[in-house]
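Quick one: structure tokens for this chain, please?
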Amino acid sequence: MNKDIYTVEIAGLKRDLRLFQIAPGLKIAILNILGDTELVQVSARALAEKLQSVEYDILVTAEAKSIPLAYALSVETKKPYIVLRKSYKPYMGEAIQAETLSITTGQPQVLILDEKDKALVQGRKVIILDDVISTGSTLQGMRMILDKAGASVVAEAAIMTEGEKSQWLHIIALGHLPLFTN
């Protein structure tokens, strides 16, 4: 087996994930769903099943890799979705923002809730959705924004969690990725 590949099975589909070094002696498996329509669709179907018992109004995700998943899950569940953006545009009006730290870049990243979307989530029950949850920093940023907007986060979901499995037991996920040390 190639040490630079980690094979996973997600909702019945096998994928070979490339390992990427994020720090000396530490690698993570990269799940990039962009362009993998088959994986996005089966993941959305499987997550929709797992979310059946959760009462919610809107799906919320962060730009960019999880957008196809949010769209597909929205189609499956017939629930709307919104995207927290990574850069501010003037048309976004009085937006709400929070800063997080990206595990893949090691750099701070900003998440922004558009003014029009703020009105959609206020007083509503939302599910936070991501492709992979690694450190929880993006989740924390999304929670901060949604709290400021007056939304209630009722669940957090992802295709995969990563790292210390015990810290992600509350996440509705289809699988878990280990960290790779050498």
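Residues 128 and 156 are 5 Å apart (CA to CA).
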